[in-house]
Amino acid sequence: MQSDSWWQLRAGKDMWASGRVLLSDTYSHTASGAFWPNHEWLAEVLYYGAYRLGGLPMVTLLATALIACAWLISWTLTSGPAPRAFGLAAIALVPSSLWWEPRPHAFSLLFMMVAVSLVCSRRYRWLPPLFLVWANCHGGVLLGLVILGAGLSMRPERRCSRLDAASSGGCCRR
Predict the structure, then answer these.
(1) CB 118 within 8 A of CB 126
(2) pTM above 0.90, yes or no
(3) Torsion angle, CA of 168/154/139/57, rounded to 10 degrees?
(4) Which is it for the CA torsion 22, 62, 137, 32, positive or negative?
(5) Separation of alpha carbons 66 and 43, rounded Å
(6) Ramachandran bin of 75, using left for φ above 0, alpha for ψ from -120 to 50, beta for the remaining angles
(7) Phi-psi category of 79—alpha, beta or left, where left has phi over 0 and alpha has psi -120 to 50?
(8) DSSP-derived secondary structure for the chain
(9) Handedness of CA 11, 96, 107, 156 (dihedral sign)
(10) pLDDT digits (tens, 9 = 90+) for 64-113
(11) Alpha carbon of 30 to those of 62, 76, 113: distances in Å?
């Protein structure tokens, strides 16, 4: 847990109790009442809901599920021999583990891979609802626009070809 994880859980609790999104700072002394662009409000509410269900273990389980699902989608998008793909994934897992914590960016890890999967399978109609949820969970939604732009800028015949995991870090399947 990071030091502001407790603050996010409290914000989630207050929104849960009031039934409204907090858009003004109610926690700090120096900025009390100031406008707060709470772009992570949905993640805060979801983490607080997990906390209500099972305390910190449930919050950790939610973050773990988000991260594990992201890696599972990443794995399904890779190609090439399984031992080689596993080796590359294992190398990427080590540095990425520094970011495995119950924080709103865990939603971006999952939604980023969902966006890649949707673009690769040309299921564009699911992107607006994904981006809507993502935008209210974490500011990383801008990565989704980058993913969409990159996918659309590829030549149509290459847009969703499976690339070798070693050369691309994993890509699309039909």
Answers:
(1) yes
(2) no
(3) -40
(4) positive
(5) 11
(6) alpha
(7) beta
(8) --TTHHHHHHHHHHHHHHTS---B--S-STTTT-B---TTHHHHHHHHHHHHHHHHHHHHHHHHHHHHHHHHHHHHH--S-HHHHHHHHHHHHHHHGGG-SSSTHHHHHHHHHHHHHHHHTT-GGGHHHHHHHHHHH-TTHHHHHHHHHHHHHS-TTTTTPPPPHHHHSS----
(9) positive
(10) 999 999 989 988 888 778 888 888 888 888 787 777 788 899 999 999 99
(11) 33, 48, 39
Q: Encoding tokens for residue 123?
A: 């299921």
Query: How many angstroms separate the first and last alpha carbons of the chain?
Result: 38
Print burial letters for 97-119: b (CB count within 10 Å at least 16), e (below 16).
Answer: eeebebbbbbbbbbbbbbbbbbb
As a residue count, the chain comes to 174
